[in-house]
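Notes to self after the call with IL:
- keep both proteins in one doc
- input above output, always
- annotate only the second one for now

Protein 1:
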Amino acid sequence: MQSTPAASPVFAEPTPLGLLGLAVGCAALVPIALGLTLEPAALATAAWFCLLFGGGGQLLAGAMALANKNLLGGTLFTTFAFNWVMNWWALDQLAQGKAPDPTVVCAVDVCFLVIFVVLTYAFGFYGKLLFLFLADIDLLFVFRIANEALHTRAFALPVAACTMALAAVSLYIAFALLVNPAAGRPVFPMPGPLFTPRPPPQPPTS
């Protein structure tokens, strides 16, 4: 997720850390999203995984990416980290029998959808898998908003499917970034960019 190459990065590439934390947070949400368990203990357990891995892991990765002057990746991880902290709070409240206000949550999710749609386009210039990663997040928020706006759980299964797909794509990209350089070959192939940036304008010739 390197938006601008840094001559001397402060830290090692933090993207795998953020993606692995994201995958663990998603895994904790899958049983709840599928309706397999909604017990207070399950909600509280998932809340802590969301806080430590989804929130903490991505916040650390985002801060490191920004220190490395990776604006795009750092912005994505840091923004998403705070969303995972809110997931922790929401699950913790539900475990105590308190539900967050759905109108406020829906309004914020609409804002998140706008943010992630724009970031999806931006990441298309760096890789097809990164575009797919963000597109899955977009779809996840579409289904969440539909549930909240219509006061239904009709889209609960699509939300669960998007959550599992997000975990899978996150793991694949993280493994590619970790294993491919160590193996010296593309054990986990990474397709190239989806979009081609416009070349800079050439100076007029005399």
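Protein 2 (the one to annotate):
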Amino acid sequence: MGVSDLLLFLASGRKTGLLKCSHAKVVKGIYFENGIIVGSSTNDPGEYLGQVLIHYGKITEAQLQEAMEIQRGEVQSSTSDIQRRFSKSQPATKRLGQILVDQGLLINAEVAKILEIRTVDIIYDLFVWKEGHFEFSLEDPLPPDFTRVDVEPQRVIMEGVYRADELARFRTLIPSDRAVMELGTGWTSSLGMGKETRELFYFLEKRMSVAEICYNMHSSSFEVYAQLYDLIQKGVARVAGELPETPDPLSEMPNLPEAAADLLLLAREELNNKQPDKAIAIIHTLLKHEPQNAAARTLLLEAEKKFIAHVYSEIPKTGVPKILLSPKELADKGIGPQDGFVLSRINGDWDIQSVLSICPFREADTLLMIKGLWDKGIIGF
């Protein structure tokens, strides 16, 4: 079923429960009550509250990092390991929004408004997925600590279809996230610009790719594409080229088997050989062809857990990474958009945990990039 048909089916049937949609590593949840959308969830760090607050200019990356530091401190001090083991109820960790309110950076009304916007935006993104998997459960009500919304599915469908159509139109001028953007001949410093547009011009002057602009603006691809498309039509910006696709990490492992069972066996062997990063790459290859392979998904969680533990055995969470190469040397390394974003947040002051807290990527993915930069001699500790 298409996303529109699926939402209409649940709305017309006045269903109550959780619609779970998954694609690659991303899992989103949409909560229904009597056919009305009342909330949503996501495991995509780019859609977490902190990233959305930065995008709307409510906080800075430094303020998010500080708030996350406070939250981590509460987790560590809230209860001991022995208490966790024997206590049936663990103390609740204070939510990020409340920490920011306590710090005087936001008021409760601002947090509630952003949470409502975020709830609907999580759903809109489904309309630009080319494929995915869904399941509906009648036994999962909206968690009590979620911000409740009351949204008619028809409203979401209309906006979602509009965004999908518009994104297709934007791609007629901007071919992909790898497109490198620059200022066009129609640019002039006399143009009236708000804060967000000035920020976008800064990235255009640096000739960043669309993906890099999205990461740095902590914004959805739809919003960035819309802004860039408008600037291109006005002659203010233009596409200067396209970055090459990121090399497949399995290119160093020729003659891989094609059968899913054989790939799983090979991934398990790599795990047993204490090579969890290779195991992760193999499992991702399998999941590209069989996204709902339950055994592969289970093994991926195990591999990521072991990889994270392996990285932290070599690099402490409090380790402070430093860039070892000059800007000119970095330019010759062919660093991809995601690696480039992580690298730009390595400032010689923030430790690993701080870098993780402001990156719009999953912990395992960010650590894969950090380890890759370390192995290549680009960063050190």
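Annotation: The chain has four domains: 1-78+95-167, 171-242, 249-301, 322-380. The domain at 171-242 is CATH 1.10.10 (Arc Repressor Mutant, subunit A).
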